[in-house]
Amino acid sequence: MEPGDRVWNVPAAHVGLACCERAVVLVPRTEDPRVFLTTQPPAIALEARPERLGALSEHAAAADLAAGMLAVRPSPDEELRASAAELVALRARVVLAPRHAPDVARLALSGVMVELRDLWAWTLAVAGPLADALELYLSHPELEVPIEPFHGLARGMGRREGLSLRAIAREVVRRDWRLTEGGMVTISERHEQEGAFLGRLEDGDAAWRSSDVWRAAEGRERTHFLERTPCAVCEHWLACGGYGARDGTVADPTWCAAWMPLFARLRSAFALAVGVSSEAASADYPG
Ligand code: SF4
Q: Which end of the chain is less packed: N or C, by CB atoms within 10 Å?
């Protein structure tokens, strides 16, 4: 991915794919998305419902993807109707809602990459499953696959680059774009659910960027620091990025109470791991 390239999450049919529900394509900085998306560009990621697994196993678009780039997502209200063996065979990542909390450990320990999506729903359900999933990720000796968003947060800590929940949830203004089934342009799935649209696809870049939704999203980070909100002085800013500030600037106490202990636990585990590995390195290479 080159600087300035954009990541578009679009209905799969919009780029000529009938095998799944959504497709993610890279739109080069120099291209007009309205035109580029009609050229049926290759997908770098796909999202499908579990019922599609049989057909997906024979589909070239799915077979060409890197591990974890096929997301299998059951409805948040339904049981997961896919076996761990099927998901592992497709190197798929399973996207789970709070209803699927009892499946997290079983799937992850069977070698299925897991993503906890819609973090607000997870946070409001009950805090226990989030903490359980974090402990599984941090300390189960047999776990060999990532559990998101914790793995992404840990990677961000390792690179010291502040890979925040906002980036992991693909809500980065200017990088992440989403086209709805109805032809509306927005930033992310969460924005779509909130009815926050930039305009229609045919309106084009200049119109999208002059919309109120765009300006509010772009100014959001700056506003935290200009107004010295609690997020601006929060020790977990790099990991959270104010993701729990529902209206943009006011941190939600429910969110902070659930996530601050998780961020702290992850950070202390990371510090411990770094300390252990540097001790091991100095023993291996004395002097
Ligand atoms: S944990 Fe709460 S105060 Fe801290 S950055 Fe997140 S939303 Fe803001």
A: C
- Distance (angstroms) between ligand 1 centre and the Cα of 249 equals 10
Report how many domains make up the chain.
Answer: 1
CA of 58 to the centre of ligand 1 (A): 44
* Residue range 162-192, pLDDT digits in tens: 678 988 989 999 999 999 999 999 999 999 9
Closest atom of ligand 1 relative to the 251 alpha carbon: 7
Query: Closest by alpha carbon to 45, among 18, 5, 83, 72?
Result: 72
Distance 275 CA to ligand 1 centre (A): 27
The Cα–Cα gap between 262 and 96 comes to 19
pTM to 2 decimal places: 0.89
* Cα 154 from chain centre: 14
For the stretch 201-217, pLDDT in tens is 999 999 999 999 999 99
- From the number of C-beta atoms within 10 Å of its C-beta (0-12, 13-18, 19+), residue 71 rates as buried
* Ligand 1 atom closest to residue 263's alpha carbon, by position in its atom list: 1
Domain-embedded: residue 201: no
Q: Cα 181 to chain center, whole Å?
A: 20
Q: Is 164 in the pocket of ligand 1 (CB under 6 A)?
A: no
Residue 232, domain member (yes or no): no
Q: What is the rounded distance in angstroms from the CA atom of residue 237 to the CA atom of residue 239?
A: 5
* Residue 69 belongs to some domain of the structure: yes
Domain housing 102: 6-148
Q: Are 34 and 14 in contact (CB under 8 A)?
A: no
Asked whether residue 269 is domain-assigned, the answer is no
